Automatic annotation (TrEMBL):
Residues 7-132 form the Prokaryotic-type class I peptide chain release factors domain. Belongs to the prokaryotic/mitochondrial release factor family. This is Class I peptide chain release factor. GO terms for biological process: rescue of stalled ribosome. InterPro entries: Pep_chain_release_fac_I (IPR000352), Pep_chain_release_fac_I_sf (IPR045853). Transmembrane segments: none annotated. Residues 106-138 are annotated as: Disordered. It holds the Pfam family RF-1. One of its GO terms (molecular function) is translation release factor activity. PANTHER family: PEPTIDYL-TRNA HYDROLASE ARFB.
Length: 138
């Protein structure tokens, strides 16, 4: 079982794993060993609560496809097991992140003192620029 939060758990068989060759430099080792881990998870067919499904499908993330699948590829390490753990950690972070509800922002107004400081600064800057001008009488 994969624990997402206190109340939400997923069965191991809901996640599909595929191991492929990593890209980039690495010499002979990289050409013969499949160390990169690819995690695939179908949101619609999962046992996640509807709230999670809706939020995940609405989320703008490059790891979520238009067909409603989460695809995560991890190839940071030369170890297949470490890459698998990293991909799983990214998956849990992505899914658990949609449960966090953002606080509503309360609009604030600038204080009179801060408005006065801003205007004084603008006047001072304008006076400095005015002194730089070459005002010759014609």
């Amino acid at each position: 079982m994969i624990k997402i939060s206190y109340q939400v758990e997923l069965a191991d068989n809901e996640i599909e794993w595929q191991f492929v060759r990593s890209s980039g430099a690495g010499g002979q080792h990289i050409n013969k060993v499949s160390t990169a881990a690819q995690l695939s998870f179908d949101i619609a067919q999962s046992s996640l609560p509807d709230f999670y499904k809706e939020k995940l499908l609405a989320k703008a993330d490059h790891r979520i496809t238009k067909s409603g699948k989460i695809l995560i590829k991890c190839q940071q390490s030369r170890s297949q097991d470490f890459n698998r753990q990293q991909a799983l950690a990214q998956f849990i972070e992505l899914v658990a992140g949609v449960a966090h509800v953002q606080k509503k922002r309360v609009a604030t107004k600038a204080t009179k003192a801060s408005q006065k400081r801003r205007i004084e600064g603008k006047k001072q800057r304008g006076a400095t620029k005015a002194m730089r001008q070459n005002k010759s009488d014609y």
